[in-house]
Amino acid sequence: MTGRTTGRRGSGKPTIADVAALAGVSVSAVSKVVNGRGGISAPTRQRVLDAAAKLRWSPSATAVALRGARTRALGMVAGRSSDVLATDPHFTLLISGIESELAPADYGLLLHIVGEEPGAEERAYRRLAEERRVDGVILTESRIGDGRFELLRSLRLPAVLVGAPWQPDPVVSVQAGGQDAGIRAAVDHLVTLGHRRIAYVSGPEDRVHTVFRRRVFETALAERGLRPGRVLVSEFTAQSAVAAVRELLADAPDRRPTAVLFANDTMAVAGMNAARRLGFEVPRDLSVIGYDDLPLGELVYPQLTTVHQDLIQLGRAAVAAMFRQLDADRDEESPTPVPDPEVNPPELVIRESTGPAREG
Amino acid sequence: MTGRTTGRRGSGKPTIADVAALAGVSVSAVSKVVNGRGGISAPTRQRVLDAAAKLRWSPSATAVALRGARTRALGMVAGRSSDVLATDPHFTLLISGIESELAPADYGLLLHIVGEEPGAEERAYRRLAEERRVDGVILTESRIGDGRFELLRSLRLPAVLVGAPWQPDPVVSVQAGGQDAGIRAAVDHLVTLGHRRIAYVSGPEDRVHTVFRRRVFETALAERGLRPGRVLVSEFTAQSAVAAVRELLADAPDRRPTAVLFANDTMAVAGMNAARRLGFEVPRDLSVIGYDDLPLGELVYPQLTTVHQDLIQLGRAAVAAMFRQLDADRDEESPTPVPDPEVNPPELVIRESTGPAREG
């Protein structure tokens, strides 16, 4: 009456305890072998693997068997400062989409905003895995040289990446098709309005999407026979957008840009108002285009022309992909294939912050 | 080797199992008695309570004993639609503050945005409690007639409310002192600028803070010998702010307000631009004041005069109060008193959206 020793698994499937018993080791030793953690001798490791094979305890069922019952939570770890939610509405919209898909399944999102200290993100993932706190994790902000996919595989923690991995990787990822459509449409729109000197204020170059979009911008200009526009790399903040605009507009009238693309809406709105304070009317003297299509863009005056990304739908797609992955792990006899969820490609929303180029 | 039956409690304190053994009942029966759930006869109930008393197993330690080890997560349930994060930056800032206090303690925030369906919020709390998924929950948006405090006590789930309870209640709550200071300073500022016809666009009247602030507004006007200004009740959305401004500015020039206070910044910015589209310059023809001091207010042109609330600090204070409460529960011999955390009172931030009243 002081505890329960029997599990509640209804099926006749082999358990980790069966593998441990057959191999003559502890459950935690089996766990260590499967998770690739240290402290297990090579012969013991072989015995565990042999036992697993004999019992047809398939590796694809491992994560679930180790986790036991579903936790009804997905995890999200942000190696960012805690004000990321306040300053990056992009992140917030994604979480809105995630929550809208989690709620009907009675799932919650366990959010860890761990700061930018090196190793903090990795420690958080290890703890989530060791304490079996979540069924899987959703990753955002795909980075160049990202080590998270490998780490999570070694932890046997299912993952879904929002965005594209930096190099070919088996991680499940969700992304809208036609990723280049937004920037291309923005450049087309400006060229049609007569702009020839178009600048781009990019985000930090350690992220996959900033590097990708910058290339799309440069390619789109080249394809239209335009000279490369100025590209300034910013920190994704309002302050850095203001600094960028000051730098761009300090150029001589026949050299300074007549239009600027910003890598997100917050920067675009900050840049628009910085221009106005310098005496440049938007769009009369300067056309401005943002990226993301946050609610902010409709609130300001002039309303912001921007590239719409369906971030809420992307958050939903990430959860759908995770659920499919978890279902597939659970039923290794007939794994459900995980199709790419449908998310609309980015598209240009034309409002008031873009207009005909002024004679320079 | 197939499981663990012994706990890991190092201290000599009595456990729920000791109480169950002495009373001659199961652990789950003790749990039912303590949680006030049904299915336990009166004599059995008495036996459990006697055993608890004999072993000095204090009710204040109950929640912790039932929960076992800390979960290293706090919960937050929002009975709102999943786009609340995208549309209500107030909520987002609070979460930023919460996360900044949780991260150093290796805690995460388990977020459930369950939609507005009746009963969904209650079900989520029940599940969090039954599955022991969190150490406690943080409550926001104190409502008139709020039933959450009682529910959480019956679930023995520690709670901290951000804001004031609707009626005297033992729930632990955090709030800045001088709650009326912000609206009072806003009215003073406008009166000093010569405004006599001041309107207020309030939020939904089922919330404690909206009703409170509306009263502060009305009192402040009366104290300055001004006639009651028009008060419009809105839905806290940009759309309802636009509708309110249209209604207010449709009045005859000698009757319409020369200044408007809005219950949040998003409404103020939307209202400001709606006025501009109707041909009213801000602040020349209309002064506008917001509430919250979101990053948005500094990005727009003119920059928004608003009441600053230290939402990040409020989120931090909520977590600090929760940790003190959990520590006190854990050590019933010398409970740490829970002091009110320090949060700065709301204060007016004067920017560009307010100016001298125009002759009407």
From TrEMBL, chains A, B:
<feature type="region of interest" description="Disordered">
    <location>
        <begin position="328"/>
        <end position="360"/>
    </location>
</feature>
<protein>
    <submittedName>
        <fullName>LacI family DNA-binding transcriptional regulator</fullName>
    </submittedName>
</protein>
<keyword id="KW-0805">Transcription regulation</keyword>
<dbReference type="InterPro" id="IPR000843">
    <property type="entry name" value="HTH_LacI"/>
</dbReference>
<feature type="domain" description="HTH lacI-type">
    <location>
        <begin position="14"/>
        <end position="68"/>
    </location>
</feature>
<keyword id="KW-0238">DNA-binding</keyword>
<dbReference type="InterPro" id="IPR010982">
    <property type="entry name" value="Lambda_DNA-bd_dom_sf"/>
</dbReference>
<dbReference type="GO" id="GO:0003677">
    <property type="term" value="F:DNA binding"/>
</dbReference>
<dbReference type="InterPro" id="IPR028082">
    <property type="entry name" value="Peripla_BP_I"/>
</dbReference>
<dbReference type="Pfam" id="PF13377">
    <property type="entry name" value="Peripla_BP_3"/>
</dbReference>
<keyword id="KW-0804">Transcription</keyword>
<dbReference type="InterPro" id="IPR046335">
    <property type="entry name" value="LacI/GalR-like_sensor"/>
</dbReference>
<dbReference type="Pfam" id="PF00356">
    <property type="entry name" value="LacI"/>
</dbReference>
